[in-house]
Amino acid sequence: MKQTTIRHDWQLNEVVALFETPLNDLIFQAQTLHRQHFNPQEVQLSTLLNIKTGKCPEDCAYCPQSAHYDTGLVTEKLLPVQEVIEAAQQAKQQGATRFCMGAAWRQPKDRDFPQLLEIINEIKALEMECCMTLGMLSEQQAMQLKSAGLDYYNHNLDTSERFYTQIISTRDYQERLTTLENVRKASLKVCCGGIIGMGETIEDRASLLVTLANLPQHPDSVPINQLIKIAGTPLENVETLDSFEIVKAIAIARIMMPASRVRLSAGRVEMNDELQALCFLAGANSIFYGEKLLTAENTDTNHDQNLLKRLGLKPC
């Protein structure tokens, strides 16, 4: 089967039209493209660990780790290396192939780098893929992480540039794009997606995907997160998202970025098995695997293993 040409010239109106496409047609189109680039029976498993918790100076309206909000979160300094490695070993034993780590920083400081680089070296010794999300990076910092063996760097755009100012005021959209440029210059693989269900419009969701798909190189992984409403954050009472909207977002991400891993990320704990199965059908071929997503609850690993088995899907 001839593979579809990878595009970087998407227009907002054609992506809005995709969001208005009947769901059956949208899933058919996404699944057709998915099979051109991936084994449709394989799902990549990533485990996410919070290695530094709370007191982040950013004011992201969705985040319980922000120092601007009282969410009852217990703050923690950067975890000891051995504690991180033990978590990675457990993740590998449970079937994860990629170990992802998040730290609640605006940008890592130079004093933190020796410990971060040691963590990367130890995880690579376990023969696992390694990903970090540490906030903004300079080009030099990205180069250091790459030299230590880091495979992926996660830095989500979160939403459209228009809606971004209603969610975050402590940094601007271009700063996120600059970090992505620095990561690519260092030849790191990019993990970049967004969050839906924060009160944004269909046009905002379309605009986010246009920005991602029109980057010079598509993100290698595209996490699609559903907002987890956390008490104490400004978005705790936002209207609950229609469950089919997450399916549409995944399908359209697959259509626009057919060779990227599309990850069904935050919000799975609130999805039933049938909805998750529909997301896989729409083109999701990666999940966060493990019972914690930074500070939020995630689906039980035994449940995930059973669900994949019932669907005939294999970890990869």
Give a quick precis of the structure:
The chain has 316 residues and is of the alpha/beta class. The chain is 39% helix and 16% strand.
Describe this structure in words.
The chain is an alpha/beta fold and 316 residues long. Strands 1, 2, 3, 4, 5, 6, 7, 8, 9 and 12 form a 10-stranded parallel beta sheet that branches. Strand 2, helix 4 and strand 3 form a beta-alpha-beta unit. Helix 1 crosses helix 8 and helix 5 crosses helix 7. The longest helix has 15 residues. The protein is globular and about 50 Å long. It starts with 11 loop residues before the first helix and ends with a strand.
Quick tags:
two-stranded antiparallel ribbon; 11 helices; 12 strands; 16% strand
Radius of gyration: 18 Å
List the secondary-structure elements in sequence, H or E.
HHEHEHEHEHHEEHEHEHEEEHE
Tell me, briefly, the overall form: globular
Assign the structural class, choosing from mainly alpha, mainly beta, alpha/beta, alpha+beta, or little secondary structure: alpha/beta
Mean pLDDT: 90
Largest sheet: 10 strands, parallel
Task: Give the count of helical stretches.
Answer: 11
Strand content: 15-25%
Helical fraction: 25-40%
Report how far apart the termini are.
23 Å
Compile the SSE list and pairings.
Elements: H1 12-19, H2 23-37, E1 42-52, H3 81-93, E2 98-103, H4 113-125, E3 129-133, H5 139-148, E4 152-154, H6 161-164, H7 173-185, E5 189-191, E6 194-196, H8 202-213, E7 221-226, H9 243-256, E8 261-264, H10 273-281, E9 286-288, E10 292-293, E11 296-297, H11 301-311, E12 314-315
Parallel strand pairs: 1-2, 1-9, 1-12, 2-3, 3-4, 4-5, 6-7, 7-8, 8-9
Antiparallel strand pairs: 10-11
Helix pairs in contact: 1-8, 2-9, 3-4, 4-5, 5-7, 8-9, 9-10
